[in-house]
Specification:
Blueprint (H helix, E strand, L loop, with lengths): L10 H29 L6 H23 L7 H10 L5 H4 L4 H13 L2
Helix pairs in contact: 1-2, 2-3, 3-5
Length: about 110
Amino acid sequence: MHANTRGQIAESDWKLWRALSKEALERHCQKTLTEAASLEKGGDSAHARYLKLYRLLQRRDQEIADVFNDPRRSRAYLQIALAVRSQIITRAELAKFSEGTQEVVEALADAGG
């Protein structure tokens, strides 16, 4: 099934994205927490580590906002593409979507969002 002309994702792919997004958010948060914990062991000063942590959290928070905030069918293609580009979901997970959705998402991800 190809993308429909209104720019909205197919219902079946929307349901898949809603389910997958919960897993992806958990994975993204765990990855961020692991990376944050690794900063504690660094040889830098406490202040330098704090600044690295602050920048990390700012980047990750923006990724979360871009991919997961305001979930609507009309935004799903872009959100999935951003999740692929940010490696929040894998190419194997993307392969679970319909061919039409994969084509749209790949084009958006390759175009830079």
